[in-house]
């Protein structure tokens, strides 16, 4: 029982009762005594089995009509709050009852308490058995040491489950087939279609039913009602970012790995670079299994750097995630706000405007558009990035023909150059122009050259193999002989 602003003998202006999960036998003794000693009670909803056990002479009112009249739950709860406050002031007091416990999945109780504090009204809260206890019993689970409890009405509007999937999850208020369908789509972003779940109906009542079904059948049940919930068993241990962060922290702990404890940002720099290139190699090869593995190796480097920074009091993984989270929202007002941008070109231009504003706010107003491109970036990628950024503000050719026309011009300048430094500069200009053609054709120059390198290696390996087969050394063969083998290697690719 919770009393607020209560005088020694003063009766409360408002009594809020928890009606339990549905079975009248699960009412608390205090709740039953109050219900039997009053003549009139107000319910958030009549749609609760406990109501059937009320004394026959009790006058019962409900606010179910508000749900029919309003388009949102928020407005309904505001109206209920206003009505309870009004009744408490006009009468000697008011008794208001809600399903379950007044503080578990019940929005009206905090709203009423807040308003009552403003008006110095006395409130008594009579707890009840919540819907959770019967659900734990039905699923035969102990919520400790860890369980996530969520509201399906909020979860259904998300695109990705906001909880670690290697922990058990209880999702309440799966009110309808529509909610179940939306919820299923969200969960399938992480869980396999056939992941086993428990769909629990009317827990804590005589009508309790439990369905053991695969996730993809969640919205096919004919038993779903406003007292349906889902129990979601966890995925395998280690399938969440939180679990991964724990093992990385363990590696760095005193009882962890000596090698990992010795590392710092600089010593891991080369590892980060190598893992990045291995990711790119898997992407270029369209190797899905390789991509999965290499993304994990790259994530290891990121989390390890964040752990080192956390130990040094610099920043944490949460800071890293929060920073990029806010940046994405800020740079996508056309998604998260009411700005209308239909074309990708408009999105890019607005992106640059936002970044310019960010630089100004950070005291970097003199920083150029190209200053943010890392100098350590591979030169082809760096060139293409420079060109893309310049094009965003209109510094670009009108069409690709203008770019192509630069190639013979750059070749002529290379042919006319004599000094090594001049020749190096002209070769750079020629390469830069070729990268510009790649950009216009929407081809990644770095990947294109990497693909050519790969083909060259394969063809050259063919030359070595064939030369060995006839007992010859490549260095002893003429160019014409080598060229014949080269063309053979190309024809094999075409076949």
> What class, by secondary structure content?
alpha/beta
- Major sheet summary line: 6 strands, mixed
- Give the proportion of residues in helices: 40-55%
Number of strands: 11
Q: What are the segments in which pLDDT stays under 50 over at least 5 consecutive residues?
A: 1-8
What is the first-to-last residue Cα distance?
A: 82 Å
Tell me what the CATH architecture of the largest domain is: 3-Layer(aba) Sandwich
Strand order, largest beta sheet: 1-6-2-5-3-4
User: Number of DSSP helices?
Assistant: 20
Strand content: 5-15%
- Overall spatial form: elongated
**CATH class descriptor name of the largest domain:** Alpha Beta
- Quaternary structure classification: single chain
